[in-house]
Each structure stands twice: as structure tokens, then as C-alpha cells.
Amino acid sequence: MRVSILFCLAVLLTACGGTRVIEKPVPVEVVRDVPIPIPDDLTRPCAKQDIPDGLTYGGALEAWVKDRACVDILNANMKAIETLD
């Protein structure tokens, strides 16, 4: 009984006596992003095309061309916003 108590005590004491290496703290550089203001001309909405009641196929094609031009303008604005520094 005495041997087992001494053995357990020896194991417990040696487990706590390890060598730890404490490293010196290293300074860290913190980078903060500064928001860039977006010009008003890049955030201006496009004019919405009204769809008339008696729309023909030719009128639908004209409305599609106008809407496509608006989409092209918005895509160009988005590309310009992506390139802002």
C-alpha cells in the first residue's frame, strides 16, 4: 500500500515539473480598411421603362433595347466601382 502511494505521488510530482518554453510576445500590425466614398454619378439609378398596355412585338423589342442599354450602363458603373482605390 505504501509503495503504491509513493509511486502515485512520484508520478504526480514529475508530471507537474516539465520544462516550458515561454516565447516573447511579437508586435502585430493591424491594418484597417478605410471606406472609399463612391461618386454620386456611379450610384444614380437608371430610368425604369414603362410598359404600355397595347404593347406590340416591335414595342417589346424597343423596350428590351432600352432596358439592355440601362443594364449596360449599370454594369459599367459596377466595374468603375470595383476599380476605385
Measured by DSSP, the beta-strand proportion falls in under 5%
Helix and strand composition category: mainly alpha
Which stretches are low in confidence, meaning pLDDT under 50 for 5 or more residues running?
A: none
* Ends apart, CA distance between termini: 77 Å
Average pLDDT, rounded to a whole number, is 84
Q: How do the helices and strands follow one another from N- to C-terminus?
A: HHH
The biggest beta sheet reads:
none
Query: Radius of gyration, Cα only, in angstroms?
Result: 36 Å
Number of strands: 0
- What would the principal axes of the Cα set say about the shape? elongated
Q: How many distinct helices?
A: 3
How much helicity do the residues have?
40-55%
What structural keywords apply?
3 helices; 85 residues
Question: What does this protein structure show overall?
Answer:
With 85 residues, the chain is mainly α. The protein has a domain at 38-85. Helix content is 52%, strand content 0%. The longest helix is centred in the C-terminal third of the chain and has 26 residues, at 57-82.
